[in-house]
Write a structure and sequence with these properties.
22 strands; 22 helices; alpha+beta; 7-stranded mixed β-sheet; 6-stranded antiparallel β-sheet; metal ion binding; ATPase_P-typ_transduc_dom_A_sf; ATP hydrolysis activity; nucleotide-binding; HAD_sf
Length: about 675
């Protein structure tokens, strides 16, 4: 069956290219594929053990660095020896066919693989490949007697390709480093006896026995009284996290101090870590506009370069008096070598992979390199209050009820109703009141967005929420809610105002640092919250947030963001990614806090901050800025150096050695620059 080329949605060829060759050698082919059969996005296609893809994905990953460099080493030794015989240790016998055969022998180790790739590309209908440029240039150099240059061009090209492969391998290792955090086996207790099984075979309800120093393989509930865990695999933070009995613990966490028992609550493939891994792997398929442009550019660029080289070789015949074909052919060959787009095609994706990898190491997940570009241009950060800038851990401060009501009785009813909600306020009331009274029967339970809860108890209405809820049901009250700074939970029973409960939240430790860093980046800050305006203003004033608005419904938040976007300024919204789904969708970049706690968060947001730390917001923006900076440095470097040497080469002022630098040298410099982001501290 005739091979069919694969193309992505933007018309970029996915197969039979130098880029595919390098990424396949690095065992990272999935990083460049979008909709091809091996893509991580193509969930329906499953590889069998012998479908032919297995070898392609893995054979070169195990190839040693020595083996990759050995053809280049052989070629280098033969080339240096030949140059020595030509210029230093002149030998009478090193002439004629012996000299030609020696240089051919030096050429074959590095040239044959490229010749083969060029032939296969032509056979499959792809004439204008990077391989063909190098073959024409080097074979042409042999034809006009420039043997050392011919070998040197192909040698440096091959060395550059090896370095590119190593760089891509490193990028892949950084992006997928989380894969090592998920153990293949777990120890479960069966009738009090420990049995080791594959983690994928563990069932919901199994009890895992986790020794000190072991990594947890699945999500579960801690059964032991308490344990400390290293969560760096998930959050990028090495600080121990102490968990209590009944707390959720996640795959990838490392047990630090004592043998613990964990009850499995989620299947292996549905664990938070599995979802994070899938997110990181799929991130490489979402290409940034810069990357897409370069790929389209390279597709058009290569045939134009070949045409120009032909014109350089033959057109001067009609305009130059002393036309010497070999001289102009040499200039055309130099032009071809310089024109190879390797520096752009490899280094730019590598820069974005580096950015995604650097972010994931710091507990920040980008859903695609396109969001690295967008976040770098953010001018406004709009944030929710609860759970974003505050801990979201509320504590009851005071209960103020009218004396005509029995406080304990009303609190029990409120506690029973709030047990229907997962809101942090409900948790605070539950912790304050205690165990839910199961003898209280609720009827017609209803949650009213942005206002609170409604139900009936013994046929009488019970309202628990903010004062908007009281106003909606025409419940009269004799206090001014704005006079109290704390969050207020108003209670009404049997159409009478009972009183209120004050609840306070704590500002996160790094919230102030976050706002200071955002200001240093000249980013405007706005806080939007459904909480009462006095509380929102209090938190905003304390942190120095420019604008703050409270008492907002979800649609009010949408309108506020629309107002900012109307000024043609890029907006990032930071929230929980669930309740704020409409405003997250509207913003240019949706950032979700606490990806470990919510599957919906990972689904909704463009960027997920896994450890709830707001200081990761400016860090994410900085990673985006640095990535974009490095990408544009590489684009500028490649175009400027190549442009200069192209002009010199066409004018006969540059030799094949300058051409080698303009191609392989610039490619290596660009790759080294792209790799820098993987070492940066943010």
């Amino acid at each position: 069956m005739k091979h069919q080329h694969k193309y992505d949605a933007n018309g970029k060829q996915l197969c039979c290219t130098q880029e595919e060759k390098i990424y396949t050698k690095a065992g990272a082919k999935d990083l460049i594929e979008d909709d091809s059969c091996c893509s991580t996005k193509s969930k329906k296609h499953q590889h069998s053990e012998d479908d032919g893809h297995n070898h392609e994905h893995s054979h070169s990953a195990n190839e040693s660095t020595f083996k990759m460099f050995s053809p280049s080493a052989i070629s280098l030794v033969l080339l240096l020896t030949a140059i020595g015989f030509d210029n230093v240790f002149t030998a009478d016998w090193f002439t004629g066919w012996i000299r030609i055969i020696w240089y051919i022998a030096a050429y074959i180790p590095v040239g044959f693989p490229v010749l083969k790739e060029a032939f296969e590309s032509i056979k499959e209908g792809e004439f204008f490949s990077e391989f063909l440029l190098m073959v024409i240039a080097t074979v042409g150099a042999f034809a006009i007697g420039q043997y050392p240059e011919a070998v040197a061009v192909m040698l440096f090209y091959s060395v550059g390709e090896v370095f590119q492969t190593l760089a891509v391998t490193r990028a892949k290792a950084n992006i997928k480093s989380l894969l090592d955090q998920r153990p293949d086996e777990v120890t479960i207790l069966v009738k009090s006896e420990a049995q080791t099984i594959k983690a994928a075979d563990a069932k919901i309800g199994d009890i895992i026995q986790l020794k000190a120093g072991e990594k947890l393989g699945l999500d579960g509930e801690l059964l032991s009284d308490g344990a400390s865990f290293n969560t760096s695999a998930l959050t990028g933070e090495s600080k121990p996290d102490t968990k209590s009995k009944g707390d959720t613990v996640l795959a990838g966490m490392i047990n630090l101090n004592k043998v613990s028992q964990v009850k499995v609550t989620t299947a292996y493939t549905d664990s938070k870590l599995s979802k994070i891994l899938e997110l990181v792997q799929n991130a490489t398929a979402q290409k940034a506009p810069t990357e897409l442009f370069i790929r389209k550019f390279a597709k058009i660029y290569t045939p134009i370069v070949v045409l120009l080289a032909v014109l350089i070789a033959f057109l001067p015949y009609f305009f130059v008096e002393n036309y010497v074909f070999s001289n102009w052919l040499y200039r055309a060959l130099i032009f071809l070598v310089i024109s190879c787009p390797c520096a752009l095609v490899i280094s730019i994706p590598l820069g974005y992979f580096g950015g995604i990898g650097a972010a994931s190491r710091n507990g920040i997940l980008f859903k695609g390199s396109n969001f690295l570009d967008v976040i770098a241009t953010v001018k406004n950060v709009v944030m929710d209050k609860t759970g974003t800038m505050t801990e979201g851990v509320f504590k009851v401060q005071e209960v103020v009820f009218d004396k005509q009501f029995k406080e304990k009785e009303i609190l029990q009813m409120v506690n029973t109703l709030e047990s229907q909600s997962t809101h942090p306020v409900a948790t605070a009331i539950h912790e304050f009141v205690g165990k839910v009274d199961t003898s209280i029967k609720l009827g017609k339970v209803e949650e009213i967005a942005g206002q609170g809860l409604k139900a009936t108890v013994d046929g009488k209405s019970l309202l628990v929420g903010n004062f908007k809820l009281m106003d909606k049901h025409s419940i009269p009250y004799d206090i001014d809610p704005n006079s109290i700074v704390y969050t207020l939970i108003a209670v009404a029973y049997d159409k009478k105002f009972v009183g209120y409960i004050t609840i306070a939240d704590v500002i996160k430790k790094d919230a102030q640092e976050t706002i200071n860093k955002l200001k240093s980046l000249n980013i405007k800050t706005t806080m939007l919250s459904g909480d009462k305006s006095t509380v929102v203003k209090y938190v905003a004033d304390k942190l120095g947030i420019t604008n703050a608005f409270g008492d907002l419904l979800p649609e009010d938040k949408v309108n506020k963001v629309k107002e900012i976007k109307a000024k043609n300024e890029t907006v990032a919204f930071v929230g929980d990614g669930v309740n704020d789904a409409p405003v997250v969708a509207l913003s240019d970049v949706g950032i979700a806090m606490g990806g470990l706690g919510s599957d919906a968060t990972i689904e909704t947001a463009d960027v997920v901050i896994q450890d709830d730390k707001p200081s990761k917001i400016p860090m994410a923006i900085n990673i985006g800025k640095q990535t974009k900076k490095i990408v544009w440095q590489n684009i500028t470097l490649a175009f400027v150096v190549k442009g200069i040497v192209l002009i010199l080469g066409a004018g006969g002022l540059a030799t094949m050695w300058e051409a080698v630098f303009a191609d392989v040298g610039v490619a290596l410099l660009a790759i080294l620059n792209a790799v820098r982001i993987q070492r940066m501290k943010f």
